[in-house]
Amino acid sequence: MPSRKNAKMTTPQIYDTYVVGAGISGLAAAIKLRREGVHNFKIIEQADRVGGTWRENTYPGCGCDVPSALYSYSFAPSSRWSHLFARQPEILDYLEQVSKDYDIAPLIRFNTALDTARWDESRHLWVLETSQGQDLARSVIFATGPITQPQTPEIPGLDGFRGEMFHSAQWKHELDLRGKRVAVIGTGASAIQFVPQIQPLVKELTVFQRTAPWVLPKPDMPLGKKGQRLVERLPVIQKAWREAVASSLNLINFGLRNPAALRPVSQAAKQLLKLQIKDPVLRQAVMPNFTLGCKRILFANNYYPSLQAANTRLIPHGLERVDGNTVIAANGDRREVDVIIWGTGFDVSHPPIGRRIINARGERLSELWQDSSPEAYLGTTMADTPNAFIVLGPNVLVYDSFFRLAEAQLEYIVDGVKQMRDMGISRFSIKPEVIRAHNRKLQKHLQGTVFNSGGCSSYYLDSNGRNFAAWPWSLAHLQKRLRDFQLRDYALSYQQETLPQVA
């Protein structure tokens, strides 16, 4: 006879879907799933609070390049922004408030990291090994985002550096930079924001610039309490503001798809640079040598003034090696420093979540992507990876708000989860001919965009020289394509064989 202990054993719970990550995408996924009547899901988050990249990046001056009105969920507008462009603490507060308002926090298992997500073909289930144990799910939404893995280059001699060293995404707030000699490596989006904040504090600031970025004036201004109350009392202002920002970003996207349209802006920016920087040597050093938009366009009003401060020196070359506490540029310039701050961005060329995912063929996605560029269908579903969705995946980036991109994809994803449940689908996988045709057309249309033809080497292009990141059409076109989960694009298996197959 079975023991009393065995008699009490229960079958492990199987979730309809499983959400990995509680940042912008993960929170929206939870809210949309519940709105559509899907309640049998689980969320895990490796940290102890929500927020994603806005929780992790706390460097001085951290903020958003998209106006606040649009950098928020369409279903949860806020009137609490202090400026036209929100600062990091405000965005994090906003995400935590949304989590509270929609009662999402109780659904999240915090301090739980995903170790592996392995597809079990025999059961048509995902087996998820986490730091807190194993879970089973019929589908998975990978909502970890592309900006998660800080990138630090391998530099000869770095092991012998005796000072302090950290990446901007892992800022050492306990370290007092006052009176220190500091080297900043990189001039990307993060460095543009924190350099002006630390420049007045340090004794000497050396900025290593491998490629001069386009830095345009940031049309920022404080909103004040009166402005906040006005937006709160009159939602029509919030709506009009959001639509105006969306229209302006659509114009920028048109220019990125049609580089000739940006030439007048490039010329105006070069003329403005003459007014902003008087020293002709420095001005030449920060003059971009590629088409506007080929790399990420940066916005700041205080970066160029900080470069012209008496305690700052720009070296228009990359860091080549380190000798003790001396940093040495590619042109031989040497500077003795106490602190190195890496402003070198993130490894986005291959979605970091790929290291955790093992597909239906038993292949780890990150290993596949070492030899070939990552691909997805509509940036959302991947070949040989059944019942799985990725948010902000390959070739879905548009110059817009990540909130709007995530919401567009989640319309598609949640519809897919619902159809799985309602139609008794046990397995779906994007058809090989569908994903091939999609990516062939996508790559063809990317050729004329500024990302591919603008004369730069950006993070949009991977080691194969292939654009793995950008969407070559408008956000409206992407939203239209993602409106419905089309079963005809997928090979399907049903829990009951009597159910009809979809052509």
TrEMBL record:
<keyword id="KW-0560">Oxidoreductase</keyword>
<dbReference type="InterPro" id="IPR051209">
    <property type="entry name" value="FAD-bind_Monooxygenase_sf"/>
</dbReference>
<dbReference type="GO" id="GO:0004497">
    <property type="term" value="F:monooxygenase activity"/>
</dbReference>
<keyword id="KW-0503">Monooxygenase</keyword>
<dbReference type="Pfam" id="PF13738">
    <property type="entry name" value="Pyr_redox_3"/>
</dbReference>
<dbReference type="InterPro" id="IPR036188">
    <property type="entry name" value="FAD/NAD-bd_sf"/>
</dbReference>
<protein>
    <submittedName>
        <fullName>Monooxygenase flavin-binding family protein</fullName>
    </submittedName>
</protein>
